[in-house]
Amino acid sequence: MHYFFQRFVFSLLSLFILTLITFLLSQVVPGDPAIVAAGPNAGAEKIELLRSEMGLDKPLTQQFLIYVGKLAQGDLGKSWFTHQPILEDLIRELPPSLELVIIAMIINLMISLPLGLWSARYNDTRFDSSVRLFAMIGAGLPIFWTALILQNVIGGELQLLPIAGRLSFEYRAFEGHTGFFLLDGLILGRPDIFFDALKHLILPAFSLSLLFTAVGLRITRTAMISEFQKDYVLLARTKAASEPRIMFKHVFPNGAPPSLTVFGMQFGWMLGATVLVEEIYGRPGIGRYAVKAVTQSDIHAVVAVVLVVGVVFLLANLVVDLLLYILNPRGRMDK
Amino acid sequence: MKSFLNLTFFVKSPFEKLALGIVVFIILISILGDFIVPYDPTQIDFRGKLQPPSLEHPLGQDGAGRDVLSRVLSGARLTVLSTFTVIFVVLVIGCTIGIFSAFAGGWIDNILMRIADIWLGFPPLILALGFAAALGASLEAAIWALIFSWWPNYARLSRMITLDILSKPFIAGAEVLGVPLWRKVTFYVLPNAFDVLIIQVALDVSAVMLSISGLSFIGVGAQIPAPEWGSMIADGRAHMSTAWWVVVFPGLAIFFSALSFNVVGDALRRELDPLLRRV
Q1: B78-109: b or e for each residue (b if 16 or more CB lie within 10 Å)?
Q2: Region at A74 (left for phi over 0; alpha for psi -120 to 50; beta for the rest)
Q3: Chain A neighbors of B230, CB-CB under 8 A
Q4: Distance (Å, whole) CA A241 – CA A239
Q5: Do B67 and B38 meet the contact criterion of CB atoms below 8 Å apart?
Q6: Staple A104 to which of A44, A205, A219, B185, CB 3.0 to 4.6 Å?
Q7: What SS3 class is residue B61?
Q8: A10: Cβ contacts below 8 Å, ≥ 6 apart
Q9: Interchain proximity B137–A136, CB inside 8 Å
Q10: CA separation for the pair B246, B244 (Å, rounded)
């Protein structure tokens, strides 16, 4: 229980610093936000009105408290350009991004874990060096460039997968309940929707995952190598335990936790990296929303995206840490 | 200190030698850049719009007829120099905070490292996007944004090294002799930290480079017509199906630089890292 409490306090502290950062971010905008928001033709009265409406005439600490109070009520402010509540925008934009990141994470795990384990088992063989070369190459490829090349070659030239969008043209009228088209396809019993949405996800998810897979693969491999060197593996071998048993029953469960922590962090990083992919593939999502907001200097919308990605990141880490704690009896014994 | 006697001691395989060669080549180009480019990288030539690679223009011409080879070459300067700027500033700030934290100890150390821990976690690209949005889109903004999001790495690392060094017997000896603090930092901590920091720098170059070109690609970094690799790709996107060279070559430049710096960083780590050697 002690650990749970500590971990929870750490998350709350992180949340506090996150809100502080986002608050300060919205403060350093060059120029007077009230003048910017009022537009070029506004008179002095209108600017004053907006200033007090936005709370800009109060001291900074008080403004921060107001900001936190509004956040607690789910009020992220209004977009300066669309004049829509940012919260509504984000609720609409988050599911497509999460869908993309989840698929990218599945690709990442499906490559990193088995390849990491196998290349650690066959450390210093030709197979291992080619896995390491793959990881090296993946870590050097710019996400946005890979996305463009794959889109043009596989989507454009070869026409194997759709180029852009979330669904094909014939499903353009489709509207789900959850915003997650894969989930909607399953719930409504529409396998055609499910597979169509999946086909549209493969290229963007793969481009997004490549860089993270390269890192995940390296970390898994290193963790597994040091696990294979431990005494219990030697013991298991002298007891003539079969190699698959050693790999999957002994080494993998013991070596996986450090890489799982990294995968937990990667979830948030991937959500941040959607800014590089979504626009290219013409997918709605918070990445594209953030890019649009930045180019329109809509600072509150950008700050809201920073906040939301930060919160998702904190949650993902919390879940992974608690999961590891529950799964690992050693941690429980310590306290 | 053997690194000063023989600068290439750490590259072993031909692959690593090639990578080191590319790294040296890129640094040379980023210094010589403007003297060796065949054309002015921002010179517009509408008659040469989207011309494919030819003898006069080996990498073709872009949407405004600018020479792609010249742009890729002088792009090395923008991309590499901004990457090194980020890393240098982050190194100085991060190490100052980290070493200070280690010497201070107690609650100051605790608070600084908690902040660094939390900061470190946040997705760097999205944090940089926030800073860039607040500062306005320009290459300088992107550089500042990355500095803001990158310092905790070095604070954590330099604190760890400093604590390790402070536990050594020679520090106790220095204590007895009354060696002043600044001497302890400059003559005891920094030389011992050099190896570990240089490895981290070599491994961070590619990550910073990818982030800078990524920020430029989405329009918050370098602006057209500045020949930055990321913004060149953004500029060439619209023509990609008809003129692949506008997008492919700057991308390859990013890829080969990032890959080479990674390979060199890995080789350095293998040869220098005391932690790895122990295992």
Answers
A1: bbbbbbbbbbebbbebbbebbbbbbbeeeeeb
A2: left
A3: 142, 144
A4: 6
A5: yes
A6: A205
A7: strand
A8: none
A9: no
A10: 6
Please enumerate in sequence order all residues whose Cβ is within 8 A of that of B23, keeping only pairs 6 or more positions apart, or say none: B257, B260, B261, B264
Residues forming beta bridges with residue B61, ordered by sequence position: B67
User: Which A residues in the span 47-86 are in contact with B, Cβ-Cβ below 8 Å?
Assistant: none
Tell me the pTM: 0.87
Strand, coil or helix: B188: helix
| B123 vs A: CB within 8 A | yes
Query: What was the ipTM of the complex prediction?
Result: 0.87
Residue by residue, pLDDT tens for chain A (335 residues) are 677 888 888 888 888 888 888 888 877 765 666 666 666 677 777 777 777 777 777 777 888 888 888 888 888 878 877 778 889 889 989 999 999 999 999 999 999 999 999 999 998 899 999 999 999 999 999 999 999 999 999 988 888 988 888 888 888 778 777 888 888 888 888 888 889 999 999 999 999 999 999 999 999 998 999 889 889 889 988 998 888 888 888 888 888 888 888 898 899 899 999 999 999 999 999 999 998 888 887 888 888 998 999 899 889 988 988 888 887 766 555 44
Nearest CA in chain B to A29: B134
- The most distant pair of C-alpha atoms in chain B lies apart, rounded to whole Å, by 77
Helices (H), chain B: 2-5, 14-32, 68-104, 106-121, 124-135, 139-166, 169-177, 181-183, 190-217, 229-236, 245-272, 274-278
Is the pLDDT score of B95 beyond 60? Answer: yes
Do residues B71 and B248 touch, judged by C-beta distance below 8 A?
A: no
* Residue A265 identity: M
Peptide bond into A142 cis (omega under 30): no
- CB distance A290–B114 less than 8 Å? no
Under 8 Å between Cβ of A71 and A19 = yes
**Quick one: which of A45, A112, A283 has its CA closest to A181?**
A283
A118 part of contact set with chain B, CB < 8 Å: no
- Nearest CB to A294 within list B119, B133, B237: B133
